[in-house]
Sequence to fold (242 residues):
Amino acid sequence: MRIAQIGKKKATIVDIDIQSLKMGQTEVVPAVALHIKVVQANDSLNQLDKTLLHFLYAKASGKPEQATLDGVSVVSEMPALTDAALALGALNWEGEQTGTELKIYQGITGDQDIKLRNGTVRKIKIDPKEGGAVEWHYWFFTSDVDQDTLGALAILKSLERDIELVPPEALSSKQKTLREAANEDAKLTPAKALEKAVKEEAAGKAKPGTKPAAKGGKAAPAAGPSPQEAWPFPNKNGKAAA
Fold:
């Protein structure tokens, strides 16, 4: 699940719940929960599960294709609700998305825009509509608010605003977990492992305490400390103190 509404989307702020969040034993900080409603094309269901679109929608059968107008895009190529969608109606979706940012746009200059960071999206509900639109409902929780922000939010109940929901950044495909790296090392042949160790040594990435051996041999441990570096408490003559 990765919910995103990139670019300004017309939304209704259905409800606002001013809360307090206890931090530690005595500290209490303000928090807020916003109930957001936004209507999107049904391909947005792919953000929850790739199978939902075909489960809830189908191509219109026995009807001419949707007429198109210049400059107006078709809402969906699958506008008809399936029998399952008609029987189930609105669906609650379990799960939550943390680290999300919500932007609420107000005015023209942007001076009054509200940006809420580090929020959690939960209590998700989708309501499929005939014609290819889906009504999304969700709650956005955050403690990234101060008194001024709470005051600005309090007057938005039941109003429409342009919003943008930005999910947390996905890990780069180039990043690897420790387990993935270990699995790759286990698949290396001895010759390839030696070649990799030599390259890492040249790049300054070899593990401390080892050094590559000559070609065809095994990596040897690094030389031990000199007498002057002996432990414990070396003396000036290069011998460890008794």
